[in-house]
Amino acid sequence: MHSKFHHILILLGIISACCSCTSVKTFTTNYYRENEKTLSAIESSFKKSYEQKAFSVGFNDYSFNYISLEIKTDSIKYIYEFEIHETRLQDSLKKYQMPAEAIMDLIKKMRSIKCTWINQLDYYSNEQKKSLVYISIHPVHFRLPFTSEKYFILTYYSQPQYFDNEGVLLASRRVRKLRKINGDIFHRINDKVCYTISESFR
After folding, report:
1. What number of other Cβ atoms are within 10 A of residue 69's Cβ?
2. Which of 117, 160, 149 is nearest to 135 (CA)?
3. Residues forming a β-bridge with 77
4. What distance in Å separates the CA atoms of residue 192 and residue 197, rounded to the nearest whole number?
5. Given pLDDT bands bounded at 50, 70 and 90, which one contains residue 14?
6. What is the mean pLDDT of residues 18-26?
7. Judging by beta carbons within 10 Å of its beta carbon (0-12, 13-18, 19+), is residue 144 exposed, middle or buried?
8. For 185, what's the count of Cα atoms within 13 Å in the CB-facing half-sphere?
9. More confident residue, 123 or 7
10. Cα 152 from Cα 31, distance rounded (Å)
11. What pLDDT sits at residue 195?
12. How far is the C-alpha of 184 from the C-alpha of 107, rounded, in Å?
């Protein structure tokens, strides 16, 4: 009886794992297709604003009413927290000579699709320093069975990337090893966009 129960648990675990993999693939495909235009607009707007002043921005709460804004200078990183409708948010953007209108529109778009965080990260390919845009999403309606909370992460590259036969992101064409970002393995959406499911949003 005990052995039979043990086998049932193992079988349920295997079924759950298979369903989880299918759920992840289905979710990522559907979510990206449904929100591709907004995601592309967020990425493009962020890159243009980042060129004027290095920063990152994200939401601190599941109601998406409070943000954390990191403003980077050559020597110091300033971290502020605001309610999205506070006047001092726009005052602070203007103080640091940032494109306030564009960033407020960026925050609005992020909120509309539950985008938790956006940042620019540096990486190296063929010994050359490059950058990517890192977007994390908190899909409140999506959760894998028997797992802790997860975040849907997207990375946007300026150049086409290299993948193995399974669509897993590689470090380069010559070096056939996986490129991990924040310890996570990424998969292909298209030549310049990759995704993963992570326990961390940044």
Report:
1. 20
2. 117
3. 72
4. 17
5. very low
6. 48
7. middle
8. 8
9. 123
10. 10
11. 94
12. 26
Alpha-carbon span 187 to 144, nearest angstrom: 18
Predicted structure pTM score: 0.82
CA distances from 160 to 54, 116, 119, 147, 173 (A): 24, 25, 20, 33, 11
Residue 10 buriedness (CB in 10 A; 0-12 / 13-18 / 19+):
exposed
- The gap between the terminal CA atoms of the chain, to the nearest Å, is 46
CA 132 to chain centre: 11
Residue pair 170/176 in contact by the 8 Å Cβ criterion: yes
- Between vectors from CA 182 to CA 23 and to CA 128, what angle results, nearest 5°? 120
Q: Report helix, strand and coil shares of the chain as percent, to nearest 5.
A: 35, 35, 30
Q: What is the pLDDT of residues 148-199, one digit of tens each?
A: 677 889 999 999 999 999 999 998 877 678 888 888 999 999 999 999 988 8
Q: Tokens at residue 43, please?
A: 């990425």
Paired tokens of 106: 């960026």
One-letter amino acid at 71 equals: I
Neighbours of 23 (CB within 10 A): 16
pLDDT surpasses 90 at 134: yes
